[in-house]
Structure formats: structure tokens, C-alpha cells
Amino acid sequence: MAEFRAFTVRLPTGVRYWTVIDDQYRVVAAADEFLLHLRLGRDRAESTTQAYATGLALFFAWCAASGADWTVAAPRLGRFMHWLGYFSKNGGGGLPVVGCRVRGAGRVNAVLAAVREFLKHAVSVGAAAPGVLDGLYEVVEDWDLPAEVRGEGRIGLRSRPRHRLREPQRAVEAATDEQVLALLRACHRSRDRFIVLALWRMGLRRGELIGLRREDVHFVPDATRLCCGVRGAHAHVVRRDNRNGAAAKSRRSRAVPADWLVVQAYDQYLAERIACPEADRCDFVLVNLFGQPLGAPMRPQALNELLEALSRRARLTRPVHPHALRHSFGTNLAASGATLDEIKDLLGHAAFTSSEVYLHPSQGRLREAVGRVALPRVARPVVR
User: What's the whole-number average pLDDT of the chain?
Assistant: First the structure.
């Protein structure tokens, strides 16, 4: 059975993206054209093309295993969903993993989203017939949408994906304050302490923090002399194609405020950074100070490796990953009474729905809310 996998490509300009190749190292032309358009034409991040390429590799593997032509396979995506859920990663020779799901609903839905975008692009460029879209979407009434979206007193039509698994509601996986304090105690270097605090107190994504340049950091009360009108200490998150592979997810730049804990940790880190002469030639904020190549910008995966090492040193039962610290920031914002638009802008979300997950209170907060409700005054019966 033919196997397919995602493969990284570096263009002569230095821009990288991911494509799909078969077991003979031949590029799947239709997938490559879509992924290159995604990277260049729609300005998506390299990591986005990697996720899409990984999903498309599974789709082409299923098409080869089932003898389906990908251009007309849309009506059979239900079978593809079953194959995704119960068959091993590389097809397993066509043998199911009995009694065990190898992919959850969230992963299956992510792969289906990649396949839908690919087939929509194929239709737009004439590589697939327009009727393919009928197998991808169904038209339904929009009565379930809020009135602000569909308009008062008007029910219209909209399309929704035909194939989608119901995902269980899960609480946001956030690091607790106790875990963060344990990580800070486990830090032996100022750079590591700054990384933990920047993720926890600013809510930066891994790629945003690793991609910061020194010119983006305005940790001063007044940045007017830096030609910046933002008041107070802050850092600018800017989308760039960085040579270390780090990239901000959003194309929209934003200024993220920093508190005194982050500013103090950054000052201590700079003293440590100055001691490395090679680091002075690099404009990235986070560079290699204790490993080769010295002075080179840190890799995004280095943050995961660092937090795993700190978690082991702190003797945590589970390692804390970078996004858990970002989730902790969002959770703390919601608990402090921040509004939805404040959470959205601080975290750099494109839609309010991404920020709503932080507004779901814990059972402890629900009980406290009930306790704050004042008991009504009940008139005592008059005894004659």
C-alpha cells in the first residue's frame, strides 16, 4: 500500500513550507499547489502548512488504501472518518487497531478541516468538479445563530460541514499558580526565569516569544523616544519570517503590556546575555547562551525542552508546556474580571469564540457566586 507523508520545502528566497510526498519521494502536485498557495497567497505560517500537509498525507493514504479517487471522494468522507479513528498512523497495512481509537474527535476534525480547504481550492482552480462541494457542505437554516448575526426577525440559509465529530467539552489546560512558582524556583538561569514569566504574565504564544526582536521590546515607562506611542512597558508582537522557524500566528501586530515582574526578569536576563559576546551580534531577544551555536536564536522546540526539564527538576507530576502558561494567563484574566474584548486583544485572538473558553468558571467560583447572593428578607409572622 502506498504511503504518504508531510515533507518540508525551502524556497530559494528562504521561505519554508510543507508539502506531501509518496513513498517514492514524488510530490503530490495538487497538494503541493494548494500548500504553496496557502503559504504565499494567503500568508499562512509555516506551521499551518505543516498541520495541513500532515492531514492531507492521511487523506491520500486512505484514498490509496480504499481505491478512491481523491477528486470524487467527498461523499465517502464518513468512511475516511472511521479510518482515521481506528486505523494506525501509516495505514497499518490496512489492519484496524481493534477496540482502540488511535485519534480523538478533535484530531479527526482538524484533518477533515484540512481536507475541506484542499478540495475547495481544487474546485476553485478547476482540478475538481464543482459538485464536490455538495458532498462537503449541507445547507441549513440559521435559526440557531444569535439574532445579531442573522438579523432580527429574519431566518436565512447557511452552509455547514457535513462531516464532523462531536468533541467532548474540555476545560482549558492551564498551569496552576503553584506549578508556575515551582517552575520559577527550579530556574537556575535568568533567561529561563524570563521565559516562564513572559509566557505566564503576558500570555505570549511560543512562536511569538521566540520570534521577538530587541527592537520589539519597549520596557520603559514612555516609549516616545523610540517612535512609539504606546504608554507603559510593553512588547510588540510582529509577524515575520524568522530564520529559526518562529512565527506569530496572527498577521495583525499588537502591543502586549508587561508588568514589573517581567521587566525585572528581562533586566536580569540582559545582564546574563551581555556576558556572551556572540549574543550581541544577534537581534533576537532569546538566544543560545549555554549551548552551540552560541548567540544563535533559540528554536521554538527549545521552549518545550526547557519547560520539560524544569518540570522534572520541580518534580511536577506532569510537564508544563508553553501553551499551558498562556492558558493560565487567559484564565487569570477572566478570574480578575477582564471583559471578553480585553481577553481577545491581549491574547491576540482573531475571533471572540477563541476567548470564550476562558469565561467558563470553575466549580469553586460557581459556589462562591452562589454564596454571594444575599438572602431575601422574609417578614416574620405576627403572633396574636
Answer: 85
Model's pTM, two decimal places? 0.72
pLDDT tens digits for 175-217? 899 999 999 999 999 999 999 999 999 999 999 999 999 999 9
Q: Which three cell numbers stand for residue 204?
A: 505570549
Other CB atoms within 10 A of residue 88 CB = 14
Cα–Cα–Cα angle for 165, 322, 19, nearest 5°? 60
Higher-confidence residue: 145 or 256? 256
Identify the structural domains of the chain with CATH numbers, from first to last: 4-129 (no CATH), 177-363 (1.10.443.10)
Which of 55, 49, 4 is closest to 28 using CA atoms? 4
Q: Which grid coordinates are listed for 373?
A: 447572593
**SS3 of residue 112 by DSSP:** helix
Contact call for residues 133 and 120 (beta carbons, < 8 A): yes
Residues in the chain: 384
| Cβ atoms 63, 73 nearer than 8 A | yes
209-265 per-position pLDDT tens digit: 999 999 999 999 999 888 898 999 999 999 888 888 887 877 788 999 999 999 999
Whole-angstrom CA distances from 156 to 134, 145, 200 are 19, 10, 43
Closest CA to 262 of 355, 179, 343, 184: 184
pLDDT of residue 112: 94
Q: Which residues contact 20 (CB under 8 A, 6 or more apart)?
A: 4, 5, 6, 7, 27, 28, 31, 32, 35, 53, 56, 57, 60
| CA distance to 238, 239, 258, 259, per residue, from 217 (Å) | 11, 15, 10, 13
Measured in degrees and rounded to the nearest 5, phi and psi for residue 88 equal -65, 170
Report yes or no: 202 and 212 within 8 Å, Cβ to Cβ: no
- Cα separation, 249 vs 302, whole angstroms: 18
DSSP state, residue 87: B
C-alpha cell at 48: 499551518
Question: What pLDDT digit, counting tens, does each position of 55-80 carry?
Answer: 999 999 999 999 999 999 988 999 99
How many angstroms separate the CA atoms of 212 and 93, rounded? 45
* Position 143 pLDDT exceeds 70: no
